[in-house]
Structure formats: C-alpha cells, structure tokens
C-alpha cells in the first residue's frame, strides 16, 4: 500500500461555510439571466444548492442554458462569471466562517509535518483565496497550493470533471495513490475518484435530516469513508492509511 503524502481539501463547505452565502449571491444573478431569456423558473439560494451543489457558476450557467434551450455569447458568459465572483466575494468577506473543528485538524496536520496540504476547488481561485484569507487559513495553504477548476486550468471546467485533481497532482509532483481528498458533494467526490484518489466524504454542513441521504449519495459517488464532524478526521485518514478503506 503506497504511503499517503498529500491531503487535498475541497474549499466550499469543507474548509469554510460558504455554500449558503455563495448560492444566495448566485441566485440573484441567475434569476436576472432567467428573466432576460424568458425562462420562467426562479431560484432561491436553497433551491440552487439542491440543483447545482458542487458545481461552479460557469457549470451552472452551462446547465441552465442546456435545460432551457438558450445561449449566452462567450462575452456575456465571461461578464456574468466575473459579476458572480465579485458578488460572492463581497458576501464571503462580510460573513464567512470556517467549518466547525477544521482549524484544529489543520493545526495538528501542520505541526506533524507529515503531509503536503493543498486546496482543490471548482470555484474561482480569487474566491477561494479570499475565503481562506478571511478565516485565517492562509497560514496552512499558500496561494500556490490552491488549485481552481474555474481558473487554474488551460480550459475552465468544473467538478465532477477530474481535470483539476489531475492538474493539482501534476503541479505538486504527486501520484493519485499517495493522495487523499476531502469532499462534501457528489460532484466533488466523483472528481476525486475519477482521478484515482481515495475520497473522505464530509457531511457535517448538511442539515441533520439530510445527512443520511447525502451519506448515501457521496458513498455511491465513491467516497471510501464518511465523517460527520472534523473530529473524526484522524480516524478516517487512519482507515485509509491502514488499507481498511
């Protein structure tokens, strides 16, 4: 069994409680786009999360166009993507908090010095960096160790495409079998597993009545261990390292 040397963390609702804030900002913009293209459907932050959790804004817009049979020009698409980034970053800077218990685990991992730590996200790098800086997690993750499917790749994409995990491994000089990813969504889990990485599924940010459903969704997507709280992380990682998961 290869030795685990690298831990790759999703950002939104894994390191920081950003999904709700981000989707509120997204919903306002998506509804504006719907109105301008005669699409009757309207979204709240909550309904948008159910429909598109784990995807970045570009992925949401592509899905929306396909579902409703309209097309944005590439110029319109880029303008909306930039506007969404600005709106979300403003909300995050005002109210973002870390996921409960994650900082204690990051402190412990950093002190042990056994693993390379990096962030692998669907969200734009500017937004991810603003998030980690806001909650003080930049002490664990230098900017060069943050990888974004929306902005780091030659061609922007979104999880569940495994491209961003493959890219991060390449840049870090690591192999898939020496890495573990931590993800909270179906699309993120698929992205990691499709890149050949073992995934720990984190369901802590979901409402308690949704946790059993999300555990099944994330397990079905390929997560080998599930944790509800960050305090369970050392045991989850130990299971993978011992070959038990």
From TrEMBL:
Reply yes or no: does the keyword Hydrolase apply: yes
User: Keyword annotations for this protein?
Assistant: Hydrolase
Cite the SUPFAM superfamilies for this sequence: HAD-like
Would the keyword Disulfide bond be found if you checked this record's keyword annotation? no
Entry-linked Pfam families: HAD_2
Which InterPro entries did the record assign? Answer: CbbY-like, HAD-like_sf, HAD-SF_hydro_IA, HAD_2, HAD_sf, PGP-like_dom2
User: Which regions span the lipid bilayer?
Assistant: none
* CDD domains xrefs: HAD_BPGM-like
Q: What is this protein called?
A: HAD-superfamily hydrolase
Print the organism lineage. Answer: Eukaryota, Fungi, Dikarya, Ascomycota, Pezizomycotina
């Amino acid at each position: 069994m290869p030795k685990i040397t690298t831990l790759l963390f999703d950002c939104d609702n894994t390191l920081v409680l950003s999904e709700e804030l981000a989707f509120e900002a997204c919903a306002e913009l998506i509804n504006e786009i719907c109105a301008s293209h005669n699409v009757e459907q309207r979204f709240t932050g909550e309904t948008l999360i159910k429909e598109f959790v784990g995807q970045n804004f570009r992925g949401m817009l592509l899905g929306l166009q396909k579902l409703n049979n309209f097309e944005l020009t590439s110029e319109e698409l880029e303008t909306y993507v930039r506007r969404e980034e600005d709106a979300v970053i403003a909300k995050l800077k005002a109210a973002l908090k870390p996921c409960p218990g994650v900082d204690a685990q990051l402190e412990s991992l950093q002190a042990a010095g056994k693993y390379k730590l990096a962030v692998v996200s669907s969200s734009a790098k500017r937004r991810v960096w603003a998030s980690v800086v806001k909650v003080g997690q930049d002490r664990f993750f230098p900017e060069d160790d943050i990888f974004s499917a929306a902005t780091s790749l030659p061609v922007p994409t979104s999880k569940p495409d495994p491209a961003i995990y493959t890219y991060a491994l390449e840049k870090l000089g690591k192999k898939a079998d020496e890495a573990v990813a931590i993800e909270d969504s179906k699309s993120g889990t698929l992205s990691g597993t499709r890149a050949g990485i073992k995934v720990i599924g984190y369901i802590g940010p979901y409402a308690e009545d949704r946790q059993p459903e999300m555990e099944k969704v994330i397990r079905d997507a390929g997560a080998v261990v599930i944790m509800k709280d960050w305090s369970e992380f050392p045991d989850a990682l130990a299971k993978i390292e011992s070959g038990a998961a």
